[in-house]
Write a structure and sequence with these properties.
Elements: H1 2-12, H2 26-38, H3 40-57, H4 64-76, H5 89-112, H6 119-152
Length: 159
């Protein structure tokens, strides 16, 4: 339900949630954060559902966002359970490069499918600013995901 809400929010309220003209990729942020917390099982499910939902509400050819979200999810999965656990260090350090990967791969697929892309302008006016905005939004979203994860999977106290 959280992903579907994020897709609807991203699709319908995008003119109102822009930061310096750039819209945060809420579904991408949720998927990356969830993979860091829960690993590939739940994370790949979130990536598939999120990507399909984005494809349904997007004007892009169907499958572009599903493919890009799954690639990002598989890449982000290498971080699950590493040194930093639930701290903000890992999601913040991964969000910027994964955002570049997500948006670059989406543009590359669109270009392959016949949509023209001006790469220099896209990199300087879309890809870099979007990665910065996504990283800033991850700073706000990850603590909430962490709390949701703790609520869904409480750890017993050990004595």
């Amino acid at each position: 339900m959280l992903l579907i809400g994020a897709v609807l929010l991203q699709a319908t309220l995008s003119p109102y949630i822009r930061i310096n003209g750039i819209q945060p990729d809420l579904v991408f942020i949720l998927v990356v954060g969830w993979i860091i917390l829960r690993g590939s099982g739940d994370g790949l499910t979130w990536a598939l559902v999120g990507g399909l939902c984005l494809d349904f509400v997007s004007a892009a050819p169907f499958g572009v966002f599903t493919v890009t979200m799954l690639v990002v999810a598989l890449t982000a999965n290498i971080s699950h359970g590493r040194i930093f656990g639930g701290s903000l260090v890992l999601p913040l350090s991964l969000t910027f490069p994964l955002s570049l990967l997500f948006n670059t791969l989406a543009l590359l697929l669109l270009n392959i499918l016949g949509r023209p892309v001006i790469w220099v302008d896209a990199f300087s006016h879309v890809l870099l600013p979007a990665a910065l905005v996504n990283t800033a939004v991850m700073l706000l979203i990850f603590p909430l995901l962490y709390l949701l994860n703790r609520y869904l999977d409480p750890q017993p106290l050990s004595f």
